[in-house]
Amino acid sequence: MSSVTLDHVHKRFGKAKGVEDVHIHIESGEFFTFLGPSGCGKTTTLRMIAGFYYPTEGQIRFGSREVTSVPPHKRNTGMVFQNYALFPHMTVFENIAFGLQVRSVGKAEIKERVERIMKLVRLEGFGERRIDQLSGGQQQRVALARALVIEPQILLLDEPLSNLDAKLREETRFEIKRLQLELGITTIYVTHDQAEAMSMSDRIMVMQGGVVQQVGTPHEIYHRPVNRFVASFIGETNLWAGTVVGRDQAEVHVRISSGQVLCGLAKNASPKARLAVGEQVTLSIRPEAVQESSERVGMNIVTGTVVLSEFTGACVHYVTAVGQEQLRSMSINMGRPVKQRGDAIGLHIPKESIYFAG
């Protein structure tokens, strides 16, 4: 396995900017995800690691070896494409064996390695089937097996689950993570799906417009977004504007548009957030952190009118008008009566659940 370093990498296509100043280090054996909307530069970055694109500026290293201008077939990476790129005229066995044949591996070793990897991805007995005789999930596993059988240092996956239905995506997501943990292979995964990124990754790089917005663990990305884009792109959140009216070493007091003052913890601020008295700040409040309260006054208790009420069985979702703002909340169904549109409601926002985005 190998670490991967992108040292201030840029990529331009003529006058168009694809990726700007990507500077990251991916540890050996890490599951690292590039996450962002379409056109954000995540696939361009992955293709530079694979060798399909060469950087306009910067360096790429696998461990201590510089590979910036090394062609793809000399990088020892395995790639799984969004459309799988399987050969329809070949059997499952032949598809998986193709990379080994190109490398002039002996027939006996090819047979042993292909059968071993087919067992690992749970395709025993499928070797003689044609690709058009497989389900989407089975085709995805053939693509994964073909990438793994060459024993790459680094596994690259470009939105490999986007063609699968919801149930199959969930099952295959588990299989990919199981294989990655079992093999200990350095894995770089591209997706626009936040649930995939959050559930599979050791760390996530969030991109927008070709620029890295934040790198961190799923917990850090979710709970300590560095700006409004990350906070709104990762899951669902309430973003409220406010003005800092008081602070000490531990707490920050912010006046929101309704005139009420909310208290948060200074430690829950992104590095870019300015928390001096008088500064404008963005509060990020996750719906699941907001708790219905029978109280109408008190620290961090806000009152409002229910605009939308959704009962899903396991949970109750509310959208509540609080002054000029709306507050989305989600709570586990505990059997209490569900409030309806127009009802007054009290909501408690724990101070440890308020995060200050830059």
From TrEMBL:
Domain of life: Bacteria
GO cellular component: ATP-binding cassette (ABC) transporter complex
InterPro entries assigned to the protein according to its UniProt record, in alphabetical order: AAA+_ATPase, ABC_SmlMolc_Importer, ABC_transporter-like_ATP-bd, ABC_transporter-like_CS, Mo/tungstate-bd_C_term_dom, P-loop_NTPase, PotA-like, Transp-assoc_OB_typ2
GO molecular-function term, one example from the UniProt record: ATP hydrolysis activity
A Pfam entry, by short name: TOBE_2
Keywords for this protein: ATP-binding, Cell membrane, Membrane, Nucleotide-binding, Translocase, Transport
Domain ABC transporter: 4-234
EC number: 7.6.2.11
Keyword flag GTP-binding: no
Family: Belongs to the ABC transporter superfamily. Spermidine/putrescine importer (TC 3.A.1.11.1) family.
Assembly: The complex is composed of two ATP-binding proteins (PotA), two transmembrane proteins (PotB and PotC) and a solute-binding protein (PotD).
Protein name, as recorded: Spermidine/putrescine import ATP-binding protein PotA
